[in-house]
TrEMBL record:
Belongs to the short-chain dehydrogenases/reductases (SDR) family. Residues 1-34 are annotated as: Disordered. This is SDR family oxidoreductase. The keyword Oxidoreductase applies. Keywords: Oxidoreductase. InterPro entries: NAD(P)-bd_dom_sf, Sc_DH/Rdtase_CS, SDR_fam. The keyword Cell wall biogenesis/degradation does not apply. It comes from Sphingomonas floccifaciens. Pfam families: adh_short_C2. CDD domains: SDR_c1. PROSITE patterns: ADH_SHORT. Residues 9-29 have a biased composition (Basic and acidic residues).
Length: 286
């Protein structure tokens, strides 16, 4: 069975992950400043790297000198666009179609990255999905399992596959969410996985710090990516998306990517087990 067939079998009933090409206005992924070599000679793998925050991180990592492999579920056109973006920065890019909910696929994705680039230095666990439900009784067993498979089980799978290749100085950056701190009444399963991710980040940091591998996380607020339009948000909610933040607007992916860069490079060499909060000014207990 091919990777395409494997992933097609595991797709949720909704329209996720969703095509960035179909969004209007287009999310802003472009790096905002010249590179300074902070990831020169490094190799990174980014799950959910075809669009949204993942694409912005891939573009910024490439600008800072890294070769980048992205893992994506279905949107081959978006993935190809992201690889072109990486290559336009003079770095090598690789798109790998895989479902992070499958341990076998995660192992395959990591091996493909190492085979192509010869090493692995940075793992970004960014892939995620959400399915709004106002009544907890509407969350099916299949949806509950699928959300946890993608959002937290996938992080376990990716770390397990990547760990033999990581070494002293390597970094793992996980994507959690402001919903972990605030709660979200219509995202019960999603916000629960984000709480698990924060606990996973702190615990994994304690587990790996002796090996010189730092583990941190980023907790974005409302960011304009395919996740919400294709994840079940109503047109009414999209009209006011992000307006409840102190800044009164949603964030853009390129406003979040620098947090992922900081945690991946030596600028954050004395940080592990921490969470950064690009969320439009919302105060949370971090």
């Amino acid at each position: 069975m091919t990777a395409a067939q494997d992933t097609a079998e595991m797709v949720h009933e909704d329209a996720l992950p969703g095509h960035e090409r179909q969004l209007e206005p287009k999310p802003e992924w472009q790096p905002r400043y010249p590179g300074s070599g902070r990831l020169a000679g490094k190799v990174a793998i980014i799950t959910g790297g075809d669009s949204g925050i993942g694409r912005a991180v891939a573009a910024l990592y490439a600008r800072e000198g890294a070769d980048v492999a992205i893992v994506y579920l279905l949107e081959s056109d978006d993935a190809e666009d992201t690889v072109r973006i990486i290559e336009s920065e003079g770095r090598r890019g690789l798109a790998i179609r895989a479902d992070v909910g499958s341990r076998k696929m995660c192992e395959r994705a990591v091996q493909q990255t190492v085979d192509a680039f010869g090493r692995l230095d940075v793992l970004v666990n960014n892939a995620g999905e959400q399915h709004p439900d106002e009544d907890i009784r509407d969350i099916t067993e299949e949806q509950l399992l699928r959300t946890f498979q993608t959002n937290i089980f996938g992080m376990f799978h990716m770390v397990q596959a990547a760990l033999p290749h990581l070494k002293d100085g390597s970094a793992i950056v996980n994507c959690t969410s402001v919903t972990m701190y605030q709660g979200a009444k219509d995202l019960l399963d999603y916000s629960s996985t984000k709480g698990a991710i924060t606990a996973f980040t702190r615990s994994l940091s304690e587990n790996l710090i002796g090996k010189g591998i730092r583990v941190n996380a980023v907790a974005p607020g409302p960011i304009w990516t395919p996740l919400n339009p294709f994840g079940g948000a109503t047109p009414e909610k999209l009209k006011t998306f992000g307006q409840n933040t102190p800044m009164g607007r949603p964030g853009q992916p390129n406003e979040v990517a620098p947090a992922f860069l900081f945690l991946a490079c030596q600028d954050s060499s004395y940080m592990s087990g921490q969470v950064l909060h690009p969320n439009g000014g919302t105060i949370v207990n971090g």
